[in-house]
Amino acid sequence: MTDFLYLVAVSIRIRGQTVNKQIAVMINKYAKMLTQIDDSQLAKYKVLVRVDGVFYETEGDLAGAFTIRENAGDRLRQIYPVEGSILMGGSEVCAIVLSNTRYCRQAAQGQKPLRASLDDMAQVIGPKVEVLPYEEPQIKAALQHAAGCFVKDRYTICTGRSLFEAVTALQVLEKQAEVALKAQVLGGAVPVSEEEAVFMRENYLQNYSKAEKEGRTMEHEYRENLVVYGKKLLETGLVQGTYGNLSVRRDERSMLVTPSGLDYAGLQPKDMVKVNLETLV
Q1: What is the tens place of the pLDDT at every residue in 101-119?
Q2: Which residues pair with 66 in a beta bridge?
Q3: pLDDT tens, residue by residue, 170-227
Q4: Contact present, 76 and 83 (Cβ < 8 Å)
Q5: How many angstroms separate the first and last alpha carbons of the chain?
Q6: Which residues, 6 or more positions from 98, have their beta carbon under 8 angstroms from its beta carbon?
Q7: What is the three-class DSSP state of 138?
């Protein structure tokens, strides 16, 4: 058993559990993106994510060797009760990034809300990000109107309907915090009006799907991978025409299978068949 994250196996065994390779690859990819926001030693990051009803948590330095804890629901309730409540409360939030990046850290020390002066922040996060104590009612209320908040003497919380959105929110928030700090010497950044910022945020939420870019659902990625690897098997001569089937486990109850009678060369993601693991129907 190892605590390192290996991406070459079909599945990854961490802390005595087997973590699906797709989940591990996804988290590893966004971990690298997070560490590029602020690579200083003071910057710390943690990813909390819900995928198909299963909770995952990263442990350790995302810039080095880190572990992924699966089925982390009970632990979240104990150590991160507010974040756990958000992820388990039936809201659209499926991913939370906790961080302590340079400019967000400085913005939080000001004890005042950070208002959107960049269109990116208005769209991706909302009109403002508040500085709050670690209390569930206040944080939940703030996150209903914004994709992030500063927690006094702790960290920055960024949320998203996907890990892509949560990471993007932190990238934008760190940029906004930097702009606000550096603009002080010129008299301060001019904020977007709250009415306009609210409109931009609502437009973003309505017109940008949860499946946007890398934020696509895991099932869609599974379907696309079956297409890709089916064609690779065909190209290497390991299969011919419609011979055999490929499958991938979707969750604890089901899998996706390539359909019988269709040539691998012509498969599309929508062609994959969802099959119950117990009944095989």
Answers
A1: 999 999 999 889 999 999 9
A2: 60
A3: 999 999 999 999 999 888 899 999 999 999 999 888 876 444 444 345 777 788 888 8
A4: yes
A5: 35
A6: 44, 45, 46, 48, 80, 83, 155, 156, 157
A7: helix
